[in-house]
Specification:
It is built from no helices and 23 strands. It has 320 residues and is mainly β. The strands form three sheets. Strands 1, 2, 3, 4, 5, 6, 7, 8, 9, 10 and 11 form an eleven-stranded antiparallel beta sheet that branches. Strands 12, 13, 16, 17, 18, 19, 20, 21, 22 and 23 form a ten-stranded antiparallel beta sheet that branches. A hairpin with a 2-residue loop joins β5 and β6. It is globular, with a radius of gyration of 18 Å. The two termini are 27 Å apart.
């Protein structure tokens, strides 16, 4: 499993790195998305940020907060620590306060799924390109503990989700992140997928898919994609060796949270995220009959973009 690399980044190099988790209640439309990040502009020391969003469709809009401070580190036995907040293979704890808002969390992380390396070749993790690298140390995880936001504490017991990790010198020009778990009738199935378009001079590449579907104990890498993306929904067709997946993910706009994501060069994207979205997949394996995987309020959908007219409120927190 890849170790954090930000302490070794030369001061003249721009760099970002994030470890993140999502946990969703399999019984009710609520969940949490928590992110630990480091951001380094060329010639400057790195800063660390703690991002927390608690989604609860029964309580109204997502409760979001982000706190930035200096000096993220990689402590022994953990992936990242920012202030007193720590995230490692077995758990996450921390708190964030900013803009009159606060959040806190203490979560144990369990699960037996092998880590997922999204990129198809190991040399791609060492090469300058692609500029964004990604993996999921825990693509299918089970959480217990608690999360707190806006003065409300939610007990977490048997919530499903994942832990992800990405890093690089710049974000993709446009990206989609999808994660689905706790599907009806197939509780061990999961989808963990990143789609990206990269700018090369004046041109932007077509969409590229990296990720996998796990169903009935078999893991299927997914590389080819057709996608129609909108701020609050996405329709896609994915394929890999002996598998085809057609799907949709969507949620009402009021369930989304918007953030500013900065690149080390100072440019910015908007990212809109819902971790309690609905997902429906139609899966064809090995030429056999298609089956459906459906989950209500158990999927994650994130869209990163340059556009500003997406209609989703962006949180009042700078990045970088």
């Amino acid at each position: 499993m890849t170790a954090a690399r930000f302490p070794a980044v030369a001061p003249e190099r721009g760099h970002y790195e994030s470890f993140y988790l999502r946990a969703v209640d399999p019984e009710r439309p609520r969940g949490a998305w928590i992110r630990y990040t480091t951001h380094q502009r060329p010639g400057r020391p790195p800063t660390g940020s703690l991002w927390s969003t608690v989604f609860d469709a029964e309580a109204g809009a997502p409760a979001a907060v982000k706190q930035t401070m200096p000096g993220p580190v990689a402590p022994p036995g953990a992936w990242i620590a920012i202030g007193d907040a720590v995230l490692g293979p077995d758990g996450a704890r921390g708190s964030a306060q900013a803009q009159g808002r606060s959040a806190a969390w203490e979560l144990a992380i369990a699960g037996t799924a092998e880590p997922l390396r999204h990129l198809p070749r190991e040399w791609m993790y060492r090469a300058p390109l692609p500029r964004t690298k990604l993996e999921s140390p825990r693509p299918d995880a089970v959480f217990s503990g608690w999360v707190e936001a806006a003065g409300r504490r939610l007990d977490v017991a048997g919530w499903r989700g994942m832990v992800g990790h990405n890093w690089g010198s710049e974000h993709a020009e446009q990206w989609v992140w999808l994660h689905g778990t706790a599907f009806d009738g197939a509780p061990d199935a999961w989808l963990d997928l990143s789609l990206g378009r990269v700018r090369a001079g004046p041109f932007t590449t077509p969409w590229v898919a990296n990720g996998a579907l796990s169903v009935a104990g078999d893991r299927y890498p997914l590389r080819r994609v057709q996608v129609i993306e909108e701020p609050n929904q996405c329709t896609f067709k994915l394929s890999g060796r002996r598998v085809e997946v057609r799907g949709t993910v969507l949620a009402p706009r009021e369930r989304f949270v918007g953030w500013v994501y900065a690149d080390p060069d100072g440019s910015e994207h908007h990212a809109v995220n819902c971790s309690i979205a609905d997902m429906r997949l139609r899966v064809s394996r090995g030429g056999g009959a298609a089956s459906e995987l459906v989950v209500s309020a158990g999927a994650a959908y994130e869209l990163g973009m340059r556009e500003r007219d997406h209609g989703i409120q962006v949180q009042p927190h700078r990045d970088g």
